[in-house]
Amino acid sequence: MPSPEKTMPQHDEPQVSPTQRDEIAAAGSELIGGPLGRWARVGASRLTPVRVVVLVAIGMFALGMVQKIPCYDWAWFRGTSSQYTHACYSDIPHLFLGRGFADGLVPYFDRLDGDMEYLEYPVLTGLFMQVAAWLTPSGGSVQHREQLYWMVNAGMLMICAAIIAVCVARTHRRRPWDGLLVALAPAFALTATINWDLLAVALTAAAMLMWSRGRALAFGILIGLATAAKLYPLLLLGPLLVLCWRAGRYREYGTAFLGAAGAWLAVNLPVMLLAPEGWKKFYTFSQERQVDFGSFWLIITQRTGESIEVGTVNTYATALMLLACAGIAGLALTAPRRPRFAQLAFLVVAAFVLTNKVYSPQYVLWLIPLAALARPRWRDFLIWQACEVVYFLGIWMYLAYTTSGDKHQGLPPEGYQLAIALHLLGTLYLCAVVVRDVLMPERDVVRQDGSDDPSGGVLDRAPDVFVLGGAAHPPRHAAHAVEGPRVEWGTTGPAAG
User: Fold this and answer.
1) Directed axis angle between helix 413-439 and helix 341-355, to 10°?
2) How far apart are CA 239 and CA 351, in angstroms?
3) What are phi and psi of 467, to 5 degrees?
4) Basic and acidic residues compositional bias: what residue ranges (predicted)?
């Protein structure tokens, strides 16, 4: 078996130009002079691809902040419907007062007034919120402090956005320009400052970068920290287990798993021991939360006019998620060529948001970096983003309809249900093309230049040691990155592929 050092991509590999391989990218490049020429000196300018991607990401983030100006100036503070009709709602200023930061309360330790007894966010996100509160100048009216709190958080989240852009651009060494998919994603700019999700997204993107460099322990630590900020990064350990199983990379997976568990415990254990009631609020809130915005469960309840018990929804959603994970695992073990890590990571997170009882508009942030790595094709990415932008507008217009009293200004329930269906179908569409790439690896745009799994780290160009079904006996003409021994399920001994 070749050593990891020999199977890792080389630093001097030529970069792939999307304008030469993607018709949408080529057409869009006409705005800045057209596609890259044959004799262009790549890297001759100080504006390297990574720097360009970061600058574009910061610029788009700033545009997203500009889009929130009506709310920043007045709509957050004058009634409820205005922040919806202007589509500029954010949780951040409201929770500054509503979760006790304005009063100096300590998250998880101090009780809150009202029904929400403690802060309902994971520990690392709570720390992020608290640091922003410390950085917010005191004095002045509550409204002014809420504005400053949002601005401080926006600055911190902009740093997270820049980190995400750098990590995505550098994960696939030969395809740094794929980071523009993240930087230019309209849903990214629109939803970046709704909540604090970018912290977990940045840590997850950094973890993906570390794994692509073969640093299993760093990957695990970052995934553990990301899980301490939001629950979804934990899901990435599932597809990674299946891929390491297929490639026989058990030691690396064990290192990553232990690193994740250790990092998560290091962050959570102090709060868990010193403030157990406050610590568990996030987990009890997640279990007790009713069917909410953006999910197909909401369509069912609104169309039938009947509510569904929380326990029933939790059971069915969990069952659907487990079925989806089983299908993804089966896909990974039976595919003619081992899927790329980014492909399975995208599929499992998408399955989670699709089956969940809530699909908030900012959850699209979880998927955008993974989508850019899994399917870096502008046409498919923009189709999906168009669906998400429609939903972004749809949810605020629906909330405007429900909060505008007898005026009913906005989108009625039937229109909102259509918006939900559209953004679910957009996500399903992107899942479908990723699955097609897995089943037909010759159509995978990342592999068309001869790459195997640029985000796979030790999995990149590693031979298979365990596969199922037809993948155990590929045709002689099948293209594999590296031929190696395969174990077929149900045989009495190893069967060479």
Assistant:
1) 160
2) 12
3) -140, 165
4) 8-20
